[in-house]
Amino acid sequence: MLGEYRISGRRASEIAASVERGVGSGDLAPGQVLPPMRELAALLEVNPNTVAAAYRTLRERGVIETAGRRGSRVRPRPASTARGSLRIEAPPGVRDLGEGNPDPALLPDLGEALAVSAAAYARQPGLYGEAPVVAEFAAFARAAMDADGVPPGPLAVTSGSLDAIERVLSAHLRAGDAVAVEDPGWGSLLDLVPALGMRAVPVGVDDDGPLPGDVERALRAGARALIVTDRAQNPTGAVIGAERAGQLRTVLAGHPGVLLIEDDHGHAIVDLPLHPLGAVTDHWVFVRSVAKAYGPDLRVAVLTGDAVTVDRVVGRLGLGPGWVSKLLQRAVLHLWTSGAVDPATVAGSYAQRRDALVRALAERGVEAHGRSGMNVWVPVSDETGAVARLLRAGWAVAPGARFRLAAPPAVRLTVSTLTAADIDPLADAVAEAAGPARPISYG
Fold first, then answer.
1. In angstroms, rounded to a whole number, what is the distance separating the alpha carbons of residues 229 and 239?
2. Which of 96, 276, 331, 342 is most buried per CB count within 10 Å?
3. Residue 209, strand partner residues
4. Neighbours of 227 (CB within 10 A)
5. Which residues contact 92 (CB under 8 A, 6 or more apart)?
6. Quick count: other Cβ atoms within 10 Å of Cβ 283?
7. C-alpha to C-alpha distance for 312 and 172, rounded to whole angstroms
8. In 3D, which of 206, 204, 210 has the Cα closest to residue 229?
9. How far apart are CA 83 and CA 140, in angstroms?
10. pLDDT category of residue 442 using cuts at 50, 70 and 90
11. pTM of the predicted model as reported, rounded to 2 decimal places
12. pLDDT value, residue 86
């Protein structure tokens, strides 16, 4: 059953560690069936309860999954094998459109902002026991959310969107709980959910965001949380408009116990209005990151939500890192208030490149999606073949497998580094690589 690899250990922690070593080394491949608990217990000469505890630990860590009578097996993508590893390295001479980074030319110079923050620190160093959020930072962030129609609530600051989502999920859910996620969706999030020992339930996406029928089915099936992207959905570029927002609110109103998490990482890079779903459930959060518009390395996101959820997040932060650096908070505040980024200019730049590519592909009979943000999602008949053919043509793209659970094959292209001269050659290469055009199905 396990080939040459031998699981070892006498204690549950040792057995679990042995399985993880096998997964990490590749000796236990994704989908590999593990021995039944009693069989492994007999082999290791330990109590079956010890093996049961080891398997439970591995499930909670997202390494294995159990399917009733079919037994336990290594997850198709265990937590130790992140989707980010499914990348195509761009060799010399090949353009890299796969990493999903913003255009460095559109990011602000941080020198002045960091100098202003350092000067404030010189006047009043940050010390233990102080409030975790800079008051001026909180006031500006709250005002911006108010202007966008985000419901009122207390604020917290985390180290980016994914950190916020992890803390919110952990504040309410436990291992084994089901979480409804967009499919296709953000690869890091699709890794995070099983890493927390939770089960991801796919929800189809079209250009207007999550499909209400899919959301309803997921919640009726027992999903305890729903995570949605308001704008610049990664990888499809979907945007939740007013009509879709109303439909989703109606669905959520019938499930008030569901935890709702909204991700607005597209803030300041999208020129389409925000339609937040709001406080339609008992527990909800709205997360806004500065990564795409101001720089991924700032690692700052602000969240608001119901008082219980935010209080739990702040309390857990206090027992770990304590707070997100106020040096960074003040630097971001200066970037916000100084107009270092013109959202209209940034959104327009990405839209020009993205729309040009989508149009060029349409002219060649290739369906593509990208209403907002910096990515274009192209359905293909053979994902592996398309990636390989594009690489030979001089373009490295992201395999759709990084972003899919049940959605059909596709590739993701990031437009951040494209010029006008790139559009036609790239569209020709994609049309050649994508195979026959076919309608997309997100369900």
1. 8
2. 331
3. 206
4. 26
5. none
6. 23
7. 9
8. 210
9. 35
10. very low
11. 0.83
12. 54
